[in-house]
Amino acid sequence: MLHLNAFLMTVGHHESAWRFPESGLTAAWDVAHYRHLARVAERGRFDSVFFADGPSLQGDVRHRPVGRLEPTTLLAALAGATEHIGLIATASTTYEEPYNLARRFATIDHISGGRAGWNIVTTAGREAAQNFGLDDVPAHRHRYERAAEFVEVCLRLWDSWEDDFLLGDKESGRYADGDRIHTIDHIGRFFRVRGPLNVPRTPQGHPLLVQAGSSSDGREFAARYAEAVFTAQQTLAEGQAFYADLKARVAAAGRDPDLVKILPGIVPVLGRTEAEAAERAHELERLQVAEYGLRQLASLTGIEVTEADLDKPLPDGGVDVTEVQGAQSRFALVTDLARREGLTVRQLLGRLGGGRGHRTVTGTPAGIADTMEEWYTSGAADGFNVMPPLLPSGLEEFVDHVVPILQRRGLFRTAYTGSTLRDHYGLPRPANRFAPTPAAP
Amino acid sequence: MLHLNAFLMTVGHHESAWRFPESGLTAAWDVAHYRHLARVAERGRFDSVFFADGPSLQGDVRHRPVGRLEPTTLLAALAGATEHIGLIATASTTYEEPYNLARRFATIDHISGGRAGWNIVTTAGREAAQNFGLDDVPAHRHRYERAAEFVEVCLRLWDSWEDDFLLGDKESGRYADGDRIHTIDHIGRFFRVRGPLNVPRTPQGHPLLVQAGSSSDGREFAARYAEAVFTAQQTLAEGQAFYADLKARVAAAGRDPDLVKILPGIVPVLGRTEAEAAERAHELERLQVAEYGLRQLASLTGIEVTEADLDKPLPDGGVDVTEVQGAQSRFALVTDLARREGLTVRQLLGRLGGGRGHRTVTGTPAGIADTMEEWYTSGAADGFNVMPPLLPSGLEEFVDHVVPILQRRGLFRTAYTGSTLRDHYGLPRPANRFAPTPAAP
User: Which NCBIfam families does the annotation name (chains A, B) (predicted)?
Assistant: First the structure.
């Protein structure tokens, strides 16, 4: 069975989405919009919904509704509006403190009955750095070293209460067994944290750990910690290579490769016919604002291009990818795409407008299901990070027309069989490092 | 009209609460428990519910369910479970970053339709410091200086989007007026924050600012920033003196004293008769665990007493209150109480067990309403921070039996007349410092 995550980005992943008639101008920060989307995804039996994040105003607000809600807070609101679906939010190890973040995700896991997931990011943008007292983003390697220590601290905090700490003896006044609640006494390079957490261990033991960095540092990090990986892959061959590489790294790290689920992004541009899908793709591209796309391109690659050069090839940035301190893997993907296909800047902006480097598939529901089945059965994906270009319609159409095809082919669940996010992804509840017990089946 | 805030503390404010038959052993981190409480308070037309907080495991878990949920996350969950009532959470300026916290409270204000409030604390405990890389709590004065700069940064971030930023021109592709969204370019002693926030301005402009420190530094801080103040006052005379002092400080700071609401804490121990109330008070005290109370006393005052000395007077801590780096005002209140009334340590623990220094009133609904009316009409309170010893029953009884008396006397609302927390407290929506406009009536 493949896994489906609904990546919910304001009014849609395509940068033109807000200009379509269906799009609400203030929906990007309207909880009712997200409640609806989460319920639609749950109706479609998705494993999870997911929100990206960075602690800065990202993108050009003059040309797109980039204001938004803080996603860990939003997850708590969605927990009460849904019953089954997993709830994943991004949070940054560079600009948070582990004690604070561990508490919030533990709280979401309790509130949702075990449906919380954390997409661990190190945050590449300079704008974010400048909201936290820095002049520029910390070095790539430094960020990943901090991330690893951050996650280690969180894992210990989440285990700091053993599952069976409770005595609950009202008669004698003994509430808990103090020997089963532990300080963690962490002293490291980045953090000193005494513990214990002030939240008891959660239904999932700890939230599902998700990771989306595909650089060399990112893959190594994923191999050690991730239970699900979101990734941008443009071609089947690239997807297969990434899948094989990451699973090998997981095995090399001493973990079971089956317990790390790899979900490439897919931007489905749907039509009842091929012609209708192509027409929608054309309309999305027609409504792109070049000025916005050029700013995004500069943000992804550091390559500055003016409108005068839209119909020329992408200039050479002259940057060694390993020197990129921002999002290394996305830089390489974008520049490789432009060169491999000989795209002009305008053509490249069209390709990036929907998914910022994620694969766009334009076609009928059956055609999109074919692509997904091919990737799933040929070793490129355990599932997909579905990125509708328009929201809510793109998700509604996917749930109503693509999901039933996947279900009929026996590729996707027709009902939820477990109650936690880990259940949906087929992952066990982790043992507690302070009191190892057999993991639940 | 007086104002009522429901201070929701796990299974009740009294340290014995968990030993009563009604108390759920895991209710302290069960969102269903808090949903019920918030709905009961809303049925009682309370202005708000409120959660205390500190980023550490506070109190002795062996003798009390001190594990809990992170309150800003919990507020987001309660927003969807209620329609009218204000939602206030504590968060620390010492252990958070302003950009992160400003986003979360802005998100709660959006999600709740303008019902968010932030109780600003500087966090006195050493345990918290040790979860954030420090050996001990930063000095009292230092914490308040950081708090002031922290709040200034948040206020600017909350104003960084003017209310009328939206163009929404789908035809031309112009989404927003970039001139109405501002960087804040803050450079201070503690923080450098560029902005803008990535959340648009909220229904209330910014969340209600609440403060609960009653030290000299705390009062000065409240005078500058607070819109509501929670305070612990043991006698009417002390309450009147605090009320007069704080209102004078507000005026001296150039603000309208009517726009800062002062709410002393009250722990109502209710009975249908005086005898029944006294019996309940006795039962609460009987179930106290001396070992727990002594640890709490040490935590509040720094005075270490053993069980052997329970029936002696409180020993002299020999500490100058201005040298206390933790909770200065609570230290003074506890030691003054013990000396003024000549209490033994055991008697003092009994008095502190319900509200840790807040006033306990034992009696019938009419008797408790009399006390509240007296404080309200004689210049000691604009309302009350209601701290039920048992939850849910203590809140249910207050709503069912005390609130109707206050309503019949014309002291309390019988229906909500506004939609935001500021509406409930009779406070205007603040103007935006980047685009001053008349405050809403």
Answer: FMN_nitrolo
